[in-house]
Design goal:
Blueprint lengths: L5 E6 L4 H15 L25 E7 L5 H12 L4 H15 L2 E3 L7 H4 L4 H4 L6 H19 L3 E6 L16 H9 L8 H11 L3 E4 L9 H10 L2 E4 L6 H14 L3 E11 L2 H6 L2 H12 L1 H6 L4 E8 L6 E11 L5 E11 H20 L5 E2 L18 H21 L1
Helix pairs in contact: 1-2, 1-3, 1-14, 2-3, 6-8, 7-9, 8-9
């Protein structure tokens, strides 16, 4: 079979998650690491003819000025994430990917994110929303042409932006176009401008962040016009993954959850951004809706997210679940989740890249609802429980594999 060549365009390209994705891809290509943590490395997925590591080329948008080598070094020294042997073996590949990074947009990103920007992005600070979309789309198109790519998948792994006005979440494509082309300042957030640019360039879009991105009716309309795929939002990697597994247990056993408190601490750049209450609002909203959907009623909940700089890329979540058992007896379940933020997220991003590329070969468009198990606020489905979401994915695997067998 002829080799494919697929572009991965990362938004927030030099951030912790993106850097770990790129280090992971390069290490997998060189055989320097195993595929632990990758859902698509499970035996059932071997039937799908997924893209391999050496078929992927990386580029992206970034508002800061650094490099993959420098950011990987920070993760090593501050968080002890990678080992020296791995980095030494992939340094040439990391430098090559650096050459494909272009300045991102600062449009409606909020003061905290803007404070991180380098000179190249600051020079573009006054561009309009329409100008930003045109420039971003041109960058993606140039990447595809330069690298002679079969297709491009744009993945948003940038920091969480402030939420837009609520009315934006219900906009049709005509409303989006009117806002882009109007005389006043558009309320569309940067994540949505990136999504529009991706679709305009004929690329597929994955939103791994809590930011709105393509989760607007108008963007689904546009994806179908452009015959591209999209999916999101907010990668489900830690505490919320546990909620999605444990809450159905309480529901199935008819144990009444009276309160569920989750306290999260971490110290990476995303944590620093989320230390701003405006940016934090998007994240808390994404983490807090799940229980009501699964249980069918709303217990008292509290979700806190705190930036503790010394934690580096490691995060800890403490959860206290107060529930009522038989004869009204109150009981408690507590758990602690501790993991490396970027290492939990990166393999899921790689999975989403591979699965999106495979679906693209089927010629479909619109929301990929079968990927719900990867997200806290999945688009295109009302099913919140992880086990059922994963069943949707395995059913898709069976369907696509059967199609291949028939060819």
């Amino acid at each position: 079979m002829a080799k494919r060549k697929v572009g991965v365009w990362l938004i927030g390209a030099w951030g912790g998650v993106a850097t770990t994705v790129v280090v992971g891809l390069a290490a997998l290509k060189k055989g320097l690491t195993e595929s632990t943590g990758l859902v698509t490395a499970l035996p059932n997925f071997s039937r799908l003819d997924l893209i391999d590591w050496d078929e992927i080329v990386v580029g992206g948008h970034e508002i800061r000025e650094t490099s993959y080598g420098a950011e990987a070094r920070v993760l090593v020294e501050k968080s002890h994430v990678f080992n020296e042997k791995t980095l030494a073996g992939i340094s040439t590949q990391l430098a090559k990917f650096d050459s494909n990074i272009r300045p991102g947009t600062l449009y409606n990103v909020g003061d905290t994110i803007e404070s991180l920007a380098g000179s190249a992005s600051l020079k573009l600070k006054n561009e309009t929303a329409a100008q930003a979309v045109a420039r971003l789309a041109k960058d993606i198109e140039g990447f595809k042409k330069k690298e002679k790519l079969d297709r491009v998948i744009v993945v948003n792994v940038s920091s969480t932006e402030p939420p837009p006005p609520d009315e934006v979440r219900g906009w049709k494509w005509a409303d989006v176009q009117k806002s882009l082309n109007g005389k006043g300042r558009s309320p569309l957030p940067a994540s949505t401008l990136y999504a529009i640019a991706a679709m305009q360039s004929g690329s597929h879009f994955v939103n791994f962040t809590p930011s709105v991105g393509s989760d607007i009716p108008g963007l689904d309309e546009y994806s179908k016009q452009q015959q591209v795929l999209h999916v999101g939002r907010d990668g489900k990697t830690g505490e919320t993954l546990m909620k999605a597994v444990l809450a159905p247990m309480f529901a199935a056993r008819n144990l009444k959850v009276m309160s569920w408190v989750g306290h999260n601490i971490f110290g990476n750049l995303d944590g620093k951004v989320l230390d701003d209450p405006v940016n934090k609002a998007n994240k808390v909203r994404s983490k807090d809706h799940l229980l009501t959907e699964i249980l069918g009623y709303k217990p008292q909940t509290l979700v806190s997210i705190e930036y503790i700089e010394s934690m580096g890329d490691w995060k800890t979540a403490w959860d206290h679940i107060h529930f009522q058992g038989f004869l009204g007896t109150p009981m408690v379940l507590q758990f602690t989740w501790q993991g490396c933020d970027s290492l939990l997220a990166a393999p899921l991003v790689i999975d989403l890249i591979r699965l999106t590329e495979r679906e693209a070969r089927r010629g479909t468009s619109g929301v990929m609802s079968h990927l719900a198990s990867f997200f806290k606020s999945p688009m295109g489905t009302e099913e919140p429980a992880f086990a059922y979401q994963f069943q949707q994915l395995t059913h898709w695997v069976d369907r696509v594999s059967n199609e291949s067998d028939e060819d």
